[in-house]
Each structure stands twice: as structure tokens, then as C-alpha cells.
Amino acid sequence: xxxxxxxxxxIAVFIIMFILFLINVxxxxxxxxxxxxxxVLLILPFFIMDIQAMAPISTKIQYNVIEEKFKNRKVxxxxxxxxxxxxxxxxxxxxxxxxxxxxxxxxxxxxxEIVDRTGMILVLPDYPLTPKNTYKExxxxxxxxxxxxxxxxxxxxxxxxxxxxxxxxxxxxxQKTGEENGIMPYKTILLSPWLDVRMTNPAIEEKxxxxxxxxxxxxxVSGKKYAGSDGMESYLVNPILGPVDKLENITIYTGTYDMxxxxxxEFMKRAKAEGVNIDLxxxxxxIHIWMTHIENKNVSxxxxxxxxxxxxxxxxx
Length: 317
Fold this sequence. Notes:
CATH superfamily of the largest domain: Alpha/Beta hydrolase fold, catalytic domain
Strand content: 15-25%
């Protein structure tokens, strides 16, 4: 069962129990006991099960989806059935979800349109999730997967992309690759990246007032679980702390109505101070990962940014 459905189920159970409580106070103890049992049953799988993603049925029907295995995890390889102009470029896409959620249906819709428009081959790894796993298990999968793609395909055919938490993983991967004098990808695109799970930037407080998507307290909890007992000072968890001298050909998209935006600016200051050129594309009043809301008419600027991303993907150099 997908995690978001588990959360919704837990909320539904709570509402039902509350209604029952209002109807009959005498059975309060029984209702509370049932609530506790149901909550435990719904939450326990997060800690004992290694939940893995499934491609939506509609995606399997309308697109070429190959499910491979790497380090005992699923890796989805997606190509378009509509676009006959096939590209030899591969996109390694690291999805967001605060390190606790698998790729959402909105992610799949977004990625479907990318492969339709570009003809590129998209590789979507279902990396390990917290709270059962930490950043160590994530990088134990993602780093060798990236290195395997570079070895087999070559630098000029690999584009690295990531949104939110996935953007943080992507940047940490680049920093680790640079530190080890490895081969960088052809280009990297980060969408509303989460660069510091500590969430201690004072400017976040003002962004909280206008951010309709993220909850700071929830992010702090998931960030701590992702870091584990020893990762909070690691740049693999907080790439805002990592080396920037080897970084190249990176574009970052961020919106001003996103509480992760201030840390992007802090990172940009570091990069600029060290003479590293990073392309920052900031959208005024844009929410977190707004470019994935291409089907939402209320997010009119999503389509504009999506077109910009497609152009960037297809640009040479």
C-alpha cells in the first residue's frame, strides 16, 4: 500500500473514532483503544517494511515501462510510445517526497510528459525510504547506479535531475563524485531542491507564511530520520555544507513561495564566493515543485517553466 494511502487511512480512522466518541461517551475507552491499535497497524509498516513503488497502470499502458532491479531495488526505465524522434540521452531522475514517500502520481505525470516531449530515456530509481533507511542506504544504491550509467553510456549521454529531497540527493551525489574525481553528468537540473534538512535558516520563518505546501515540523522529523544517528553534519544529508569546487553545468529552479528557497540562496552565495557558476532560475510567487503541476489550471506558471525545462534538456552543452 502506498504511504500516502496509509496516512489517509489513519486520518479516516481518527475521524471515525472522534465521531463515535461524540455519539457515545461511555465507550470512550474502547474507541481510544481501537484508535491506538489501528494507528499502530497503519504506522508500523513504515518501520518494519521496505515499501517499494509501483508504476501506475495508466503509465504501463500508455508508455514503455521496463522494471529492472539494482541493489535489490526497483529501477523504472520509461520511454515514450508517442514520440518517434528518439533521443540517445538518458535522464536519471531522483524523485522527491521528504525521503519518506515514493514517487507520486504527479511525478509520473510530469515524467511522462518529459519523455513524450524529449524522446529521452528516463531512469527512475525507487531508492530506499526513511524511517527504515537512512542516507547511507540511499547512497549505497544511487551512487553505484549513477557510476554504472556513466561507465556504460558516457558523460555526454547522462542528465541528472531531481526534485525536492531528490534534488538534495542529486547535489550530494555530484559533490561526492567531485570529491572522488569522478565523472560529472552532461548536465544537472534541480527542481526546488532540499539542501539542508536542519531547517535552521532564519529566513525560513517568513517563507512559512506564504508556503502553502510544506510543513516545517514534518520536514524536520523526516530529515532527522534520514540523517540517522551520525549524518546531520554530512553533506550527503545537507549538501549546503558540501564542496562546490568541482560542480559544473547545474541549473536550479526555485520559487519564492517555497520555504526551501532561502537555503538555495545560501548555497548560491557559497558557489559564487568560490567562483563556481550555477544557473539559478527563480520564479516569483511560485510554490514548491510548481513545475510538476502542469495539469493544474490554478498554477498557470507551471506550463511556462515546464517548457523552459524541456528547452534546457534539449540544449547542447
